[in-house]
């Protein structure tokens, strides 16, 4: 019996060793810039970019970058954070993180526009390998990108990735923003307009309550049950999914709304929004069980579609870039599934408030490569906020393969009239997809 027991242990050990030997080695962890070409326009005082690695390391990673300036002098015309020393930057990607940020600040006010700085990654600690985007040229003037590839930094969480990502094709830029970082957006156009954070999601209803009323725990629980999405028809509590501001829930000035921010603490708020004057909103809010009311004045800034506020921080917070500096937003948000609201991952919205439009083109990667301006006349551009939406991928189906739909790509016409073709490459779903969920990879090119 003992011999049999020992033999079993030996065989089990051999089996485990065999399985371990069969595990494929991890692919190289590469380090790349977020773009290969960027520009600082006349109206911008700084520009930031990130250094990204494919997966987080257990210890800090030091990335060494050579800096070559053309027509500008460090300390006189520009500075960097981290600081440049001896024509080099040492940036640190912290353990557990996948990126570090470099900021370039413009000091000189008068530049010709042809000055530039080139950043070259020379090495990285921890055995990391330099990727394809190891060089970045920053020009002191606006650029119109001819195209690139990009890994969107949706962050951790897989299908529930923590960030929304805004992409500007002409500027080769992406902006990642934590979905939980804001509560409401105030419209900067001429009319009164409010949006709720649909990425949480957020629901609301109008009431006859006073803003300083104290709601009992029992009543608060009843309200939360009413406002919680539970696979029933609750569209009346949601902002219009097409982005029509006239159909937003919070549309009456001076009324008190009960607003339920799913997943946040506190979750239930009383909210009252008024016009202080033609160019300023006053936002008053208090948690459901509190009579202590906080207030924020929000001045309209027409450079942006919306100005965003955080109840947690009691201040205005940055979310989307300037309205003419983003084209699409990739995010997790509420969508319509049949007759009920449902939380979707990997939704792609277009910037309808800045006039961005999009068209879907059926064709494979060869059709994408061959697509040029001679074919634009037959494209049917749409101003639907979900002209791309979730149509580019399949995450649950019994009738078609999971993953990116390889039989289509998209055209996106930006606010300046530039048309870019857009194709999704990897998303971490489906057989053979080597990407990572929450970090979708795209390619885009200016249609000529």
UniProtKB/TrEMBL annotation:
SUPFAM superfamilies xrefs: CalX-like
Coiled coil: none
Keywords: Signal
Pfam families associated with the record: HmuY (PF14064)
Domain of life according to the entry: Bacteria
Record flagged with keyword Signal: yes
Signal peptide residues on this chain, from the entry's feature table: 1-22
KW Transcription regulation (keyword) present: no
Protein name (record): HmuY protein
Organism, as annotated: Dysgonomonas capnocytophagoides
Source organism phylogeny: Bacteria, Pseudomonadati, Bacteroidota, Bacteroidia, Bacteroidales
